Amino acid sequence: MxxxxxxxxxxxxRELHWLKVMERIQFRLCVLTPCCPHGTAPPYLAVTLYLVAxxxxxxxxxxxxxxxxxxxxxxxxxxxxRAFTVAVARAWNALMSSVRAVPTMLLFxxxxxxxxxxxxxPD
Length: 123
Description:
- The chain is mainly alpha-helical.
- It contains seven helices and no strands.
- It is globular, with a radius of gyration of 16 Å.
């Protein structure tokens, strides 16, 4: 019964140009990420995110030239992977570099939603 409910709602979500729940969560996490280094996010969130280029031992890696975040190691995959620092880093690093490099926040939100919508509802 729940499967029928999902198939009924999916065309409506597509028609309204709404994201599915998991993509909506990823959208919110990714929109908050660029705010952290600029000081527009709450400070308790901003201090938890580190670029790969900011870590001493990783400065010489190829990934240091990109805007990828360090993913903190966790002991438990059920609870630790849901922590803000881990979830944000994974969501941000999963984005294409062209989306991460968009200069303004308005264009970034548009491109991010377009990208996530295309992954939700492939043609």
